[in-house]
Predict the 3D structure of the following.
Amino acid sequence: MPVRKIDACLETLGSDAFAPVFVDFVATFGVDQIMVFSIEGERARCLLSYHFANAALAGKLATAYLDGWFRRDPLLPELAAARTNSVQLRSLDAITGEMDVDYRRKFFDAPGLVAKTTVLAVGETLRLFVSFYASAGSADGCDPDLARVAGRLALLHFERAEENSTPAPLRVLSEREQAVCLGILSGRKAEAIAADLGVASSSVVTYRKRAYGKLGITSRAGLFAICSR
């Protein structure tokens, strides 16, 4: 039941355990993908990206969005102007006329996403886009009340988690996948990471491949890129 899943989200606010619990809650919405971005002036950060059927797709779209495309988001001026401690909802239909052709092609037409509900969630320290996407074969959108709740939960969590040492994009990974990625970010070799975890070097390679697949990246450089934005 959504109420129990909301309670589970509340119990894990500010911790690394939040992301999988939150994704489990969003799974009840009937959508295909969720993305959470923090926008800070001329800088954007991906705090969460997850596609329920194609893990790599969300990572690829998030990477592209951070690579300057976020500046072409038609909702950007509205998020910048939104008042503190507010939550607003916007649908894809409401902003289609303000979206340039290349932006729509890259983030909607090419990946087959036809519906979107975005929560503009603004707190004391963060301004977030919390977006839910649906493909042609799924629901037209998500329940607006649930979307508002999810937006507030994301805002509460990420404002609490700002001091968390784990980079936000890694929070959708398993514990072992996170540990391997953190080891790579700290400059450690596979053998050293394996020793820390008490596993074989081949297992580290496996965890790395799984993590990269979920994050939509293919290299160490890609890992540094998404974790430094």
Notes: The longest strand covers residues 113-122. Residues 118 and 191 are 43 Å apart (CA to CA). DSSP finds eleven helices and five strands in the chain.
